[in-house]
Amino acid sequence: MTSARLKRVEESATIRISNIANQMIKEGTDVINFSLGEPDFDTPKNICDAAVKAMYEGQTHYAPSAGIPELRTAIAEKLRTENKLDVRDTEVLVTPGAKQAIFEIMMGVLNDGDQAILFDPAWVTYDACIRFAGADTVWVPTNPEKGFIPEDFSEYINSKTRMIVVNTPGNPTGGVFSKKALKCISDLAIDHDLLVISDEIYEKIIYDKEHISLGSFEGMQDRTITVNGFSKAYAMTGWRLGYLAAPPEIFKLLLKIHSHSVSSATTFVQYGGLEALTGPQDKVKAMVERFKMRRDILINGLDNIGIKCKRPDGAFYAFADVSEYGTGSEVAEMLLREAHVAVTPGIAFGPSGKDFIRISYATSVDRISEALIRMEKVFE
Ligand SMILES: Cc1ncc(COP(=O)(O)O)c(C=O)c1O
User: Fold this and answer.
1) Across the chain, what does the average pLDDT equal?
2) What fold does the segment set 4-43+282-379 form as a domain?
3) Given 3.40.228.10, 3.40.640.10, 3.90.1150.10, 3.40.50.2300, which CATH number is that of 62-278?
């Protein structure tokens, strides 16, 4: 009764764990949820106001499929000035979330039997979308000691390789790719004529490092599809608003999938996105400062307990090695059952995540401190 395509994809392990945690919460258990991939802050008021105003002004009808012109212009302008990308308004596609952008790209460019390279570990949805599209994932291991950043991976490229997916700052490790690592990726992509998805959704959540866009490297403009969105930087996960910028030929293809599936992102939500990009940015800065403080409390706490965890340079995730206590799945279950702390097993993000857990520190300092106390008891 179901398609072969669907059978190739498993349920997201990140959702599974948070469902169990939610059930426990419903039953009255005080669960500290470190498994969520969303900021715990409210969407800034100016953004809400802009969307509400648009709604009352009648922006409740279909929008142009690629997005409202004002937002596409603002996104292109942002990509040119902040990311040094040579992008025109007409190459920007506004999507209901970055996730939909990634889905459309995979469906639009991958064929049966193609291979796509993921740096292991990687966000769960890439592998799922690659499989939906009939292609296969090739996992390239990275070194935890070096911040999960890939080195030369030419041996993983063959005649079937079509695409590389780059995510910096990254989920689940919080790793930020250096200029050298990005140059290596861009050289290999050019040499082997590969497409690259550059998922930059965490670009603003970065500590003491500079975000560099892969599409800004020489020779990458025609082979990079840049993906970004509003969920993380502006705490807008529920609004479902993201975008991609693609070379014109690919853009045309993706617009076909987009217009025949979602039609467009929600019209008044796009006015909220316009305000997010063009309005004051002080809330973003304040949020990043709070994330940084939480990161330090968490990593220092894990260190005191004796759990190995590289200090992440971006996003709001820490990827901790728990091999001394069991596999990541065993430890995640133990923490949920005994400490009522929900984390995500690292295996959800690729084979090399087996001995790791992902801890999302998008929660208050009090809850992080409480979780550390509970975790210490379990690990003792
Ligand atoms: C790396 C990465 N890309 C994209 C997304 C999707 O974001 P959106 O809410 O815009 O669909 C997420 C969400 O967790 C993510 O972690």
Assistant:
1) 95
2) Aspartate Aminotransferase, domain 1 (3.90.1150)
3) 3.40.640.10
Q: Point out the ligand 1 atom lying closest to the alpha carbon of residue 98.
A: 10
pLDDT tens digits, one per residue of 191-206: 999 999 999 999 999 9
**CA pseudo-torsion sign 162, 178, 234, 369:** positive
Whether residue 199 has its Cβ less than 6 Å from ligand 1: yes
Asked if residues 253 and 108 have their Cβ atoms less than 8 Å apart, the reply is yes
Q: Is 121 touching ligand 1 by the criterion CB < 6 Å?
A: no
Q: Could you give the 3-state DSSP secondary structure of residue 334? A: helix
Q: Which residues, other chains included, contact 368 with Cβ-Cβ below 8 Å and sequence gap of 6+?
A: 294, 297, 298, 301, 361
Query: At a CB cut-off of 8 Å and minimum separation 6, what does 180 contact?
Result: none
User: 213 CA to middle of ligand 1, Å?
Assistant: 17
Confidence of residue 13 (pLDDT cuts 50, 70, 90): low
pTM over 0.90: yes
What span, in angstroms and rounded, lies between the C-alpha atoms of 164 and 152? 13
Strand (E) or helix (H) holding 57: none
Q: Is 236 in the pocket of ligand 1 (CB under 6 A)?
A: no
Q: Where are the domains of the chain?
A: 4-43+282-379, 62-278
- DSSP letters of 76-91? HHHHHHTT-----GGG
21 has pLDDT over 90: no
